[in-house]
């Protein structure tokens, strides 16, 4: 299910404030679902953890999200969230 061989839509949230980042994530989810893409990688960085926490809380409540998890250490660890979408 989380094979790293399939292509991912990826977004980078570095430098964004929480409100901007959440809007960008919502747009990316909408675009991915329209394109019938199953996966999304969100690069939010590690930092203080605030952005990661807010993004994951949004994902937890989003109806188009089947599940999410932190990326494996070799592909970003806690600085990246991998998302499985419902299409």
Task: Explain what this protein looks like in three dimensions.
The structure is a single chain. Strands 1-2-4-3 form a 4-stranded mixed β-sheet, with helices on one face. The chain starts with 8 loop residues before the first strand and ends with a strand. Mean pLDDT is 92; it is low at 1-5. The protein is α+β, with helices and mostly antiparallel strands. The longest helix has 17 residues, at 18-34. 21% of the residues are buried. Helix content is 33%, strand content 24%. Helix 1 crosses helix 2 (50-61).
Can you tell me the residue ranges where pLDDT is under 50 for at least 5 consecutive residues?
A: 1-5
The secondary-structure element order is: EHEHEE
Helix content: 25-40%
DSSP, total strands: 4
Structural class estimated from helices and strands: alpha+beta
Strand content: 15-25%
Q: Which term fits the overall shape?
A: globular
Q: How much is the radius of gyration in Å? A: 12 Å
State mean pLDDT (0 to 100 scale). 92
Helix-strand layout with pairing:
Layout (H helix, E strand, L loop, with lengths): L8 E4 L5 H17 L4 E5 L6 H12 L3 E6 L9 E6 L2
Parallel strand pairs: 1-2
Antiparallel strand pairs: 2-4, 3-4
Helix pairs in contact: 1-2
Features:
about 90 residues, 2 helices, globular, four-stranded mixed β-sheet, alpha+beta, about 25% strand
Compact overview of the structure:
The chain is α+β, with helices and mostly antiparallel strands. The chain has helices at residues 18-34, 50-61, and strands spanning 9-12, 39-43, 65-70, 80-85.
């Amino acid at each position: 299910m989380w094979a790293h061989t399939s292509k991912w839509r990826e977004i980078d949230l570095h430098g964004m404030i929480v409100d901007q980042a959440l809007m960008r994530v919502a747009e990316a989810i909408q675009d991915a679902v329209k394109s019938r893409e199953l996966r999304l990688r969100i690069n939010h960085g590690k930092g203080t953890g605030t952005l990661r926490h807010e993004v994951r809380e949004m994902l937890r409540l989003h109806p188009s999200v089947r599940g999410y998890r932190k990326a494996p250490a070799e592909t970003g660890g806690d600085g990246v969230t991998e998302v499985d979408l419902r299409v």
